[in-house]
């Protein structure tokens, strides 16, 4: 971290803010309720718990099986922004250095994940889960963001970031900050979580801690189930250094020939399909690499040789995809070829056990062609994504209390055991869904299943960005096609880390008779849309679903998302027009109740932010409240700065990265930024405006990033029902309240956790409040 620079001073009468990396002290006006955080004598926040930044919550240990929507925080945003041309509300130029660095902000997000793992009030197995999430997040960050930055530096196309940092400065920031966080992560496991689990009877042990009986049992397991799939690879003049696959665990083994006295190097890959932790005896688990590396077991692999030493290492490679769509006649085939090439991306990080022999480390660095800055020595065990399996142990007392979502009250059949008639309910009213508090299976899934089975339904049109391996959504679409309905499915085969799965679903849907399209060249289709056309008498009625999350029944139980089910014909007409654009040829850019990227979404939001300034000047109610995963787009951020300068109150609830500097005098003193993390992954996007006393609220799929606004098909829908608008406004107010547990962003880019009030009492948890509200509705709330 660079030393703090002097206070920003006017230059030619204009305020210049220091770059985000410097942590320069920026004057921040005191908030009404003050700060609950403690600060040291240098003015830096002392965190009671660590903070981390990434978004891959609740994903399994392997990338191939990911269930996360990674794109909102991870994907590349390379567009340049001419900040010198931006002006404030009074026509004066906005100050340079007003944007926080996005990579630093991402790391801060993953730090917040780590804080949940370090928090002693978090249930123990949930702490283990957050440790695994942190590790998984960081893997993806290096595979995509760091790899992309290195590639751009190497090719000479990298430019200064919007935060004012040069590419090399950003890379060094990442190396230094990630090193600190990984050390904290390892210490949390070694010194806190593992001993805490042991106190509860769950022992995560190393080989030397096993009893003789346990070692004997594992030797039998090794001989029968592990040894047959191991392949030791020698390195000598006849055997070149082997290819090391990304994220694989490996043993570097040094053996000696007792006859010649020569030493030899060999690599043994830990099979990725075997369990990460093996049960040595009830509730006692040992890492699989410890079992492989046991002296007697290595001797089995290298009979007749003397085992000198062994060390664990793990490599991270560039796992991003590059497909030139304009030149690819068949996008599906081009992507399949690129998936094969992805396995051989260049290295971006080498994790090694801190006890590794310097000579072995030197050999790895040389052969893998990686710099010393990219080497991360850590205490074992490496790769704590394996804790996902430990977190799944059946110990409910060590987890968050179980919550089972119920059917939305507007869809529930009070006096009938039969499934609700979704269409009949939607003819009565719109239904605003809030997952996981409202069941996905009895709402969105039931909507599509009923449509597939209904003989009066003529057509179903659907976008699929990510879905589960045994998707009932896909099954319903197949059933509909096989019963003769017209079914159009837009499958986004470029959804990061789900490309292979989506290719599989695309082929399966095609084989069933669905019309499968892959969207528009050069654009990812990220919007969450479903349209059902039904014959009712002499009329065709369109039923629609517009959501903020994927059609993924499993993640719908883990991700917080919103969705609107409606029979409103304006929305139905908009979806018809948009689907026609996606499947055919259309230049439509305006819609009735939708804002659609890349043409109208950014401009539509900025114009509404600007309109709030006019309302404020006229003395009418005016505010801007936004809930997103990421707030990076400079044009939107500058619009928020102008609104703040004009006196409009601006609230930003962001889960992940945020480029806004809140609380800067003369720029953003009317902007507050909060972040909420917890048992569910906050994933919904909401945009609310005071609109002079007639509130306007939108929900949809778009985050505030160049990629979402310029290179994706995204859609927001305007929520019209006053009760729904009021409910969404209450949600935003609750998330931003100083009495709600959250993290607060300061002007220096530091996040401060606010979890207790000035008397030390816990603040309200917004997710637990929503859970309890649903339980009260069903009469099952805790007293």
Uncertain spans: 1-74, 321-329
Number of strands: 29
Query: Radius of gyration in whole Å, from Cα?
Result: 27 Å
Average pLDDT level: 85
**How many angstroms separate the termini?**
48 Å
Q: What does the overall shape look like?
A: globular
SS-derived structural category: alpha/beta
How many DSSP H or I helices?
20
Largest beta sheet, briefly?
Answer: 10 strands, mixed
Strand content: 15-25%
GO molecular function, one term: polyphosphate kinase activity
InterPro entries: PP_kinase (IPR003414), PP_kinase_C_1 (IPR041108), PP_kinase_middle (IPR024953), PP_kinase_middle_dom_sf (IPR036830), PPK_C_dom2 (IPR025200), PPK_N_dom (IPR025198), PPK_N_dom_sf (IPR036832)
Pfam families: PP_kinase, PP_kinase_C, PP_kinase_C_1, PP_kinase_N
Family: Belongs to the polyphosphate kinase 1 (PPK1) family.
Topology diagram in text:
Layout: E1 10-11, E2 14-15, H1 71-74, H2 102-118, H3 124-155, H4 167-199, E3 203-204, H5 212-226, E4 233-235, E5 249-256, E6 263-269, E7 277-281, E8 284-287, H6 288-292, H7 295-301, E9 306-317, H8 331-342, E10 347-353, H9 358-368, E11 375-378, H10 387-391, H11 422-428, E12 431-435, H12 444-453, E13 457-464, H13 472-482, E14 486-491, H14 499-511, E15 515-517, E16 524-525, E17 528-536, E18 539-547, E19 559-566, H15 569-583, E20 594-597, H16 601-617, E21 623-628, H17 634-645, E22 649-654, E23 671-675, E24 681-682, E25 685-689, E26 696-700, H18 706-710, E27 712-719, H19 722-736, E28 742-745, E29 751-754, H20 766-778
Keywords: ATP-binding, Kinase, Magnesium, Metal-binding, Nucleotide-binding, Phosphoprotein, Transferase
Organism: Streptomyces atriruber
Domain Polyphosphate kinase C-terminal: 421-587, 594-757
């Amino acid at each position: 971290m660079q030393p703090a620079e002097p206070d920003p001073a006017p230059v030619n009468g204009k305020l210049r803010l220091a770059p985000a990396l410097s942590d320069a002290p920026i004057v921040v006006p005191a908030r009404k309720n003050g700060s609950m955080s403690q600060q040291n004598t240098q003015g830096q926040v002392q965190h009671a718990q660590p903070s981390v930044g990434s978004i891959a919550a609740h994903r399994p240990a392997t990338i191939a099986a990911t269930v996360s929507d990674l794109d909102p925080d991870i994907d590349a945003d390379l567009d340049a922004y001419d900040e010198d041309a931006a002006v404030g509300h009074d026509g004066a130029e906005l100050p340079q250095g007003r944007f926080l660095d996005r990579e630093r902000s991402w790391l801060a997000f993953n730090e917040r994940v780590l804080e949940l793992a370090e928090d002693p009030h978090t249930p123990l197995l949930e702490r283990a889960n957050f440790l695994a999430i942190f590790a998984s997040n960081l893997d993806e960050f290096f595979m995509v963001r760091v790899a992309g930055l290195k590639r751009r530096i190497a090719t000479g196309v990298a430019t200064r970031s919007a935060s004012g940092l040069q590419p090399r400065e950003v890379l060094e920031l990442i190396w230094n900050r990630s090193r600190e966080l990984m050390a904290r992560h390892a210490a949390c496991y070694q010194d806190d979580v593992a001993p805490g689990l042991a106190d509860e009877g769950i022992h995560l042990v190393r080989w030397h801690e096993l009893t003789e009986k346990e070692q004997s049992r594992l030797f039998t397991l090794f001989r029968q189930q592990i040894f047959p799939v191991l392949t030791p690879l020698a390195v000598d003049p006849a055997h070149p250094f082997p290819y090391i696959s990304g994220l694989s665990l490996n043993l570097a083994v040094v053996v000696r020939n007792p006859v010649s006295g020569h030493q030899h190097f060999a690599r043994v890959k830990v099979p990725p399909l075997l369990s990460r932790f093996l049960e040595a005896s009830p509730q006692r688990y040992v890492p699989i690499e410890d079992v492989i590396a046991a002296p007697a077991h290595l001797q089995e692999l290298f009979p007749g040789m003397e085992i000198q030493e062994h060390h664990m290492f793990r490599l991270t490679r560039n796992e991003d995809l590059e497909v030139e769509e304009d030149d690819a006649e068949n996008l599906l085939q081009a992507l399949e070829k690129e998936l094969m090439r992805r396995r051989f991306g260049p290295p971006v990080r080498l994790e090694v056990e801190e006890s590794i022999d310097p000579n072995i480390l030197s050999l790895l660095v040389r052969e893998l062609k990686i710099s010393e800055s990219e080497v991360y020595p850590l205490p074992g065990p490496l790769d704590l994504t394996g804790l996902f399996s430990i977190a799944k142990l059946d110990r409910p007392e060590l987890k968050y209390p179980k919550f089972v979502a119920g059917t939305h009250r507007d869809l529930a059949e009070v006096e009938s055991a039969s499934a609700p008639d979704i269409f009949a309910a939607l003819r009565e009213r719109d239904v605003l869904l809030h997952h996981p508090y409202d069941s996905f299976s009895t709402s969105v899934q039931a909507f599509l299943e009923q449509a597939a089975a209904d003989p009066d339904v003529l057509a179903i049109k659907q976008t699929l960005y990510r879905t589960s391996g045994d998707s009932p959504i896909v099954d319903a679409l197949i059933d509909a096609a096989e019963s003769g309905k017209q079914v159009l499915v837009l499958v986004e085969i470029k959804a990061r880390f789900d490309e292979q799965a989506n290719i599989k679903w695309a082929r399966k849907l095609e084989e069933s008779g669905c019309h499968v399209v892959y969207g528009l060249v050069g654009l990812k289709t990220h919007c969450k849309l479903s349209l059902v056309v039904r014959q009712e008498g002499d009329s065709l009625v369109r039923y629609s679903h517009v959501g903020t999350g994927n059609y993924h029944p499993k993640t719908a139980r883990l991700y917080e998302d919103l969705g609107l089910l409606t029979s409103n014909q304006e929305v139905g007409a908009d979806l018809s027009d948009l689907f026609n654009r996606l499947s055919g040829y259309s230049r439509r850019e305006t819609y009735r109740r939708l804002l659609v990227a890349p043409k109208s979404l950014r401009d539509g939001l900025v114009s509404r932010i600007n309109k709030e300034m006019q309302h404020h000047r006229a003395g009418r109610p005016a505010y801007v409240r936004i809930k997103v995963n990421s707030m990076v787009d400079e044009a939107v951020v500058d619009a928020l700065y102008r609104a703040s300068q004009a006196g409009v109150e601006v609230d930003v609830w962001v889960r992940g990265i945020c480029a806004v500097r809140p609380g800067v005098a003369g720029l953003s003193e009317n902007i507050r930024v909060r972040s909420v993390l917890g048992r569910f992954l906050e994933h919904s996007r909401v945009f609310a405006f005071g609109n002079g006393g007639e509130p306007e609220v939108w929900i949809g799929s778009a985050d505030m990033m160049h990629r979402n606004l310029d290179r994706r098909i995204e859609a927001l829908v305007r929520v019209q029902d006053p009760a729904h608008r009021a409910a969404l406004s209450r949600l935003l107010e609750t998330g931003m309240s100083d009495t709600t547990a959250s993290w607060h962003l300061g002007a220096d880019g530091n996040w401060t956790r606010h979890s207790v009030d000035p008397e030390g009492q816990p603040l309200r948890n917004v997710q637990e409040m929503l859970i309890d509200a649903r339980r009260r509705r069903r009469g099952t709330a805790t007293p």
